[in-house]
């Protein structure tokens, strides 16, 4: 699923080698000349370059990978991991919001409710999905589906991938902050297991409005933050060009999030990012979901709710020290 036409700045040395490999392979096939030794040498160099680049990514480089236009989105994972998904629409109050998709499905032959934030692949699709920035009706639709899941004792799985909720006038008029706050409140006491996975961007309250889970996971090249690096840079440095510096200061890489207890598990991706191998990325995600749901189903409901409450109550905990 990789696309060599879209190359990030730090990937250019690798892309040049991959282009050389393609050219050499084509020449070999057309001229019937044996260049297998040269091909093996380039393949070896490609693997070494991959490891050198992707094992030392900066926070800003991970942000760039999380936004890669070929990265698998919520509907891609739903198609690969779940069966018999039936998308449901509308919040029953105002309208449908295509930036959030969801409905019942089967996971390992067990019914679940899966809900995800969805971006578009092209301009037309991005306009339909509002570039993955949900309106208030999207959050209300998500909550409607969660309440349905609770009624039928179905675990809830949410996929987070948004730069943030839509900040436009219409969204403010329809109370987007209130919609997010109600979701946070009601998810905290929802009487069914909730698993949340940040599959790409996890921006601000737009992410948190669907991320109050018993277990919160993140893909290796995702990020989860109170603000985007560009927004942080514009406020603190008065210049959006300082986004790489802001990304480092925010400490929102998966490793920091795990250390601080913001996420419970980091899911590995194929080398180079999930967009390089959809099937392997989905396999890793499926395995993590299996582990999580197996453990959560063992908990009595009262314990599940208490653990969820304590999990989020402890975030941001600090201790005063004597001078």
Report on this model:
There is one protein chain. The chain has helices at residues 12-31, 36-54, 59-66, 74-81, 123-129, 136-151, 169-173, 176-187, 204-208, 229-236, 243-250, 254-259, 278-297, 301-313, and strands spanning 100-107, 110-117, 156-162, 194-203, 215-219, 223-225, 265-267. Helix 1 runs antiparallel to helix 2, helix 6 packs parallel to helix 8 (176-187) and helix 10 crosses helix 11 (243-250). Helix 9 links the parallel strand 4 and strand 5 (215-219). The protein folds into 2 domains: 9-56; 63-313, 2-enoyl-CoA Hydratase, Chain A, domain 1. The chain is 48% helix and 14% strand. By secondary structure, it is α/β, with parallel strands linked by helices. The longest helix has 20 residues, at 12-31. The chain contains 14 helices and 7 strands. Strands 1, 2, 3, 4, 5, 6 and 7 form a 7-stranded mixed β-sheet that branches.
């Amino acid at each position: 699923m990789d696309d060599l036409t879209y190359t990030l700045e730090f990937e250019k040395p690798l892309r040049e080698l991959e282009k050389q490999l393609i050219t050499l392979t084509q020449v070999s096939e057309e001229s019937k000349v044996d260049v297998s030794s040269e091909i093996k040498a380039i393949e070896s160099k490609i693997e070494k370059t991959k490891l050198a680049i992707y094992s030392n990514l900066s926070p800003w480089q991970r942000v760039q990978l999380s936004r890669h236009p070929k990265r698998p989105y919520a509907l891609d994972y739903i198609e690969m991991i779940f069966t018999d998904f039936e998308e449901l629409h509308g919040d029953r109050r105002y309208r449908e919001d295509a930036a959030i998709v969801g409905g019942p499905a089967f996971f390992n032959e067990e019914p679940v409710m899966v809900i995800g934030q969805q971006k578009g692949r092209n301009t037309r699709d991005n306009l339909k999905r509002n570039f993955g920035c949900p309106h208030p009706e999207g959050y209300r639709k998500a909550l409607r589906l969660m309440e349905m899941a609770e009624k039928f004792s179905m675990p809830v799985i949410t996929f987070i991938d948004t730069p943030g909720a839509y900040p436009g006038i219409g969204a403010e008029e329809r109370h987007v902050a209130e919609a997010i706050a109600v979701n946070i409140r009601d998810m905290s006491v929802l009487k069914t297991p909730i698993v949340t996975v940040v599959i790409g961007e996890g921006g601000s309250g737009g992410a948190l409005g669907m991320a109050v889970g018993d277990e919160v996971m993140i893909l290796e090249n995702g990020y989860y933050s109170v603000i985007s690096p560009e927004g942080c840079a514009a406020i603190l440095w008065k210049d959006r060009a300082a986004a790489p510096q802001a990304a480092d200061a925010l400490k929102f890489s998966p490793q920091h999030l795990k250390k601080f207890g913001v996420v419970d598990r980091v899911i590995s991706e194929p080398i180079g990012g999930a967009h390089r191998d959809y099937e392997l990325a989905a396999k890793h995600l499926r395995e993590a979901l299996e582990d999580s749901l197996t453990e959560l189903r063992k908990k009595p409901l009262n314990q599940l709710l208490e653990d969820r409450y304590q999990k989020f109550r402890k975030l941001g905990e600090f201790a005063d020290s004597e001078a």
